Amino acid sequence: MNPATALATVLVDELTRCGLTDVVLAPGSRSAPLALALYEQQSKVRLHVRIDERSASFMALGIAKRSGRPVAVVCTSGTAAANFHPAVVEAHESGVPLLVLTADRPPELRGTGANQTIDQLKLYGSAVRWSCEVGTPEERPGMVAYWRSLGSRAWHATQDPDPGPVHLNLSFREPLTPDGDESWCEPLGGDETGPWTKVRAATPGSVLHVPPTRRGVLVVGDGAVNVKRYVAAASMAGWPVLAEPNGNARYGDHALSSHHFLLGMPEFVERNRPEVVVTLGKPGLSRPLLSYLRRAEEHVVVTPSLSRWPDPVRSATQVAQEAEIPVVSGDDAWLKGWRTADLVARRAVDAVLDDSEEVSEPRLARDLVSAMPGGSLLLAASSMPIRDLDQTMHPRRGIRILANRGASGIDGLVSTAVGAALAHGNRAYALLGDLAFLHDQNGLIIGPQDRRPDLALVVINNAGGGIFSLLPQSAFPEPFERVFGTPHQVDLSAVAAAHGVPYARLESMDGLSKVMAGEGLRIVEARTDRAANAALHARMRDAAQDAVRASLRI
To answer: Which end of the chain has fewer CB atoms within 10 angstroms, the N or the C?
Structure first.
């Protein structure tokens, strides 16, 4: 099956599973895959055909306005899509659920003068609840999950929390019609019982009841809400809690600290397959954790917004604004297995880190969190500092951890830390890389009449972009330093002096408590080596996994 036909077939099928009953089609060539897929589904959906796109879109508006149900409207590329705009604006202003599907030329034809090709990205501006460039379909594993998850999300985005139009822009390469070959690299079918993702809004009596099981896992990522409630419920149910540091749920007996290493072991993952995973917030620090979510048979995402839910691996089976984790009686072998492995891995990692008093990035992250007074705030930079915390931080209560992981940018982190510290009103710290610090030096400019925070900026200076030393780019040594490492020769003590900010240098790990002491805005520099840091991370991983294999005999 060619990719255009596969995408159209899967998307139309998923929308009918979600509840689509009416589609208005304006004929065209580039939209042929959608038109033919809709034709094949006429037993499930009413297909209305109109030759004028403007008329077609207003007809769809009328059906949706009267029925209160989302209606899809389909057209080819170019000015055909532009003719939908008045109806889209009306749907936006009047709160009518409209699903706008525009066919488009593939990226290589855009901006070339190719026939019937215009810029259709975000064509309707702010007049849609959500707009998505779907991407040109390719035959590779994972596409079906993406297309079905996308269809479910688009369908629900037209309705909640504020009904209105949603735009999917679909670029198709030729061939645009079926080629007689039905083969594909993965099954095209979805869940026979309904849509890929089931969505439940928080209305009276609508709380999602998670299937009762001891073999459950709670995952807590960035931006999680109602954390204490769900951690308590997971503890009562006997579930392990896999919490990223900025999820602020890494506390208590059920919280793990070494799941990054455990989930990187295929044999451990196979022995600890959950029956259900419940996710709060947006996970994304650990690739092994994301891979674990991808394998989940039942994945419940709890999110305050049903128009935009976090599901980076497209594995969510249900999405709800509220969920109830039931208490199930039985032995605690499931939880005991996780906790035992976690303790073994943590001790192995700690042994590697404690082998030397020389300053290292992962040990600094671990020890800084352990040494922070109760009630403190920590802002971690979005690249290596937050990941080092994820891999080394022991569970503890009484602190707050923040990170700008919404877009994971390097920009504005000094200013973010200053603002967070002022709002926190208590002792505050920031753990930043040198590039992140230098990127926002202007955050140190505070007028004489403005309040200054009680904030220690702990800056890891490895003379460049340390995270790249842990990525595949490091395998290309000749261009690496120039285009990835980006070394600098900035004297951080001079930067501190220029701004009148107290400065200290962390010479060894046994001096951490001394440099942490003090009040007001201050800078602590910790110098490390990028190559040594990459080697240390490899030793941590190997030590943790070897220890778990030896202990559990796997």
So the answer is: C
Query: What one-letter code names the amino acid at 147?
Result: W
Query: Could you report the per-residue pLDDT of 23-47, keeping only the tens digit for each?
Result: 999 999 999 999 999 999 999 999 9
- The answer to whether 286 and 223 have CB atoms below 8 angstroms apart is no
- Three-state DSSP state, 278: strand
CA atoms within 13 A on the CB side of 166: 25
Q: Say what the pTM is.
A: 0.84
**Which domains are present in the chain?**
3-179 (3.40.50.970), 208-332 (3.40.50.1220), 361-527 (3.40.50.970)
By CB neighbour count within 10 A (0-12 exposed, 13-18 middle, 19+ buried), where does 400 fall? Answer: middle
CA terminus-to-terminus distance, the chain: 42
Nearest CA to 432 among 467, 463, 461?
A: 461
Q: DSSP letters along 65-121, please?
A: HHH-S-EEEEE-STHHHHTTHHHHHHHHHHT--EEEEEEE--GGGTTTT-TT----T
Distance in angstroms (rounded) separating the CA atoms of residues 537 and 32: 51
DSSP state of 485: I
Determine the Cα–Cα distance for residues 26 and 23; give it in Å rounded to an integer.
Answer: 10
Q: Are 51 and 83 in contact (CB under 8 A)?
A: no
Report pLDDT digits (tens) over 332-383. 999 999 999 999 999 999 999 999 999 999 999 999 999 999 999 999 999 8
Encode 292-361 in three state secondary structure: HHHCCCCEEEECCCCCCCCCCCCCCCEEECCEECCCCCCCCHHHHHHHHHHHHHHHHHHHHHCCCCCCCH
Q: Which amino acid is at 52?
A: D
3-state secondary structure of 462: coil
